[in-house]
Amino acid sequence: MVTKDIIRKVAEATKNTKQQTEDLYSATISVITQELLAGKQVQLQGLGTLAVKERAERVMVHPRTGERSIVPAKKQLSFKPTTAIKEELK
Length: 90
What we know:
3-stranded antiparallel beta sheet, 30% strand, two-stranded antiparallel sheet, alpha+beta
């Protein structure tokens, strides 16, 4: 499913126009992005939690050559689904 499909389905479900729904979707994504960039968690009720986590610098070994290289520290987006979704996926 892509963004257009989400907007179309939400517009149908809420009886709003596609333009209104697209504006709401864009605003929602913007707010979520700003919060994540500020280092905060975003809890989406019934879906899960988005958070930015720090990954430490580490040493990686190439499996074929055995060559060691350093993977620099970075920030990574993580998602933790709710227990209800975890149970549904089993």
